[in-house]
Amino acid sequence: MRVGVLALQGDVSEHRAALADLGVDSSPVRSVAELDGVDAMVLPGGESTAIAHLLVTSGLLGPLESRLRQGMPAFGTCAGLVLLASSITDGRPDQPALGLLDVTVLRNGYGRQVASFESSSELAGGVRVPTVFIRAPRITEAGDGVEVLATIDVGDGAHPVLVRQGAVLGASFHPELTPDRTVHALFVDLASASRSAVHK
Ligand code: GLN
User: Fold this and answer.
1) Which of 35, 64, 154, 197 is most exposed, with the fewest beta carbons within 10 Å of its own?
2) Tell me, what's the pLDDT at 154?
3) What integer pLDDT is reported at residue 113 of this predicted model?
């Protein structure tokens, strides 16, 4: 399996390093030809409005959306989660929501850059993962088909920060910015299972 990392803007090398630590081949995706060569996609953190704009100008938006709709596994972190969401509150009016995850996200919903913070969240089975939030999107609604894998409570109730719908995983935080590989390993497992189901 080769995992593509959308390389238009954002923390591409950090995701590739995380995948390499798990022994997974990755390549940057900046063009349709590069997209054709990968089996799963990571949409990195960065700035979703900038990534969305570059998706349009590079001609990648349509082909990426159609691969994702055909069931290609995907993992979006922070800005990547915003791109995968079905509804974006406080996005730019021309900002596409790919709709692969049935969630509503509020951009910068945990505060601006100065309010960036580190915490940790517990996954099923009691594993704790470190969570880094940088102008992070807040998941304000999640549809019935969305499994909430981790939450955080910043004083106003628990909100989902790691969600899954089929082979699509989304994180409000940045697992690529910590040395812990739990969340990337979860995605690699999901993507491998989904590929073997398709190729049976
Ligand atoms: N607030 C940014 C956005 O809307 C995401 C920030 C991030 O990825 N660290 O794209």
Assistant:
1) 197
2) 87
3) 67
What type of residue is 140? Answer: T
174 is catalytic: yes
Q: What is the DSSP letter of 198?
A: H
Pocket probe for ligand 1: among 78, 118, 161, 176, the residue whose CB has the most ligand atoms within 8 Å is 78
Calpha distance 64→188 (Å, rounded): 19
pLDDT in tens, 55-96: 999 999 999 999 999 999 999 999 999 999 999 998 888 888
Q: What is the CATH number of domain 2-198?
A: 3.40.50.880
Residue 114 confidence (pLDDT):
63
Q: 172, 108 in Cβ contact below 8 A? A: no
pLDDT in tens, 93-121: 888 899 999 999 999 999 876 678 999 99
| Residue in this structure with the two tokens 């390389």, named with its chain if needed | 7
The pair of structure tokens assigned to 21 is 């630590």
Question: Which of these is catalytic: 53, 159, 176, 184?
Answer: 176
Q: How many CB atoms lie within 10 A of CB 37?
A: 11
Cβ neighbours of 167 (radius 10 Å) = 22
Domain-wise residue ranges, the chain: 2-198
Residue closest via CA to ligand 1's atom 9 equals: 134
Ligand 1 pocket test, candidate residues 51, 107, 112, 114, most atoms within 8 A of CB:
107
Is 78 a catalytic site residue? yes
What's 113's DSSP letter? G
